[in-house]
Amino acid sequence: MNALILAGGFGTRLRPLSCTRPKMMFPLANRPLLDWILESLAQKGVTKVVLAVNYMADILKKNFASLKHGIKIVYSYERKPLGTGGPIKNAERFLNKDGNPFFMLNGDILSSINYSNLYDAHRATKAEATIALREVEDPSRFGVVELNGKNQIQNFVEKPNEGQLQSKLINAGVYALNQSIFSLIPNGRKISIEREIFPKLVKNRSLFGYKFDGFWIDSGKPNDYITANKLVLDRIACSEPFLEKEIGISSKAKIIPPVAIGSNTIIGDDSQIGPYSSIGDNVTIAKGTNVMNSVVFPKAWIDRFTSINGAIIGEGAIIGQWVKIEDQCIVGDHAVIGDNVTLTQKVQICPRKELNNSVLQPATIM
User: 72 an active-site residue?
Assistant: First the structure.
């Protein structure tokens, strides 16, 4: 089986961290998002993945090369952004060799979907396309579908207005597609599969849904990214912390699972790590510092008696002593936060910025 992953997005909702890396390189429990996706595909029999790339494609190719988890990786380059439909046509030469259906995945989705079951369901209905569906409380951010009793999609509306559809079943960003999909997509232009292709398939009665349970999250926003990290930690480190080699954890430090801590990281006396924190490689956390519900990227340095809760700390960032950072705050790569600074709510600090004053309202500091 083959799969196409849309990996060319700019990750605008995760700025400023996405200014220096593609969103598929964002770590979850210290492994890139793309690594988790490839592993799950490999476990269900996928042998080739096409990465539709544009933004910072060189970083993805450097880290993943041409083989990972036994999956052959090829790269389909976009000279300009092609939306969610254009990359399918652009990658046709890589996907049309065996005539079989293939998967397509949005690159910021993390889920426990069983790809084998989706594939079998797609073949059984003889659909042209099958959308994985997940029920959510607030469907307004997503494409929403209505099904008949045979799982045929009778209505599909992308980001509906309130009251437009009664369903809470949303497009989960994972699809099984027939080779015939290529003939429906024009060459060389940006196209939305959700707005331009799926409505045609609904009219032709050839668009079906596959409902699944289990965990699912769109990790494209800061709070969702932190939640995605929690979901992974629950899977791998619920009862015992996941520790890499050569970690210097003080006997006086407190580690509360779920937690993942990278190699060559130092945790000082009287510090508390967790619950639900990922600490990257080569991080230093000094005495008396607490890190909870947060992601700390590699090579960050956090001084004494600092509190970080619900935040994302970028690679190589330097955080002073007696600092407080919380509530979806993002500190960019190599930024410097001075002593006694407080960041309380959705504050974004751009890379290499030095900040010595508290910010108590949502803001972007450039």
Answer: no
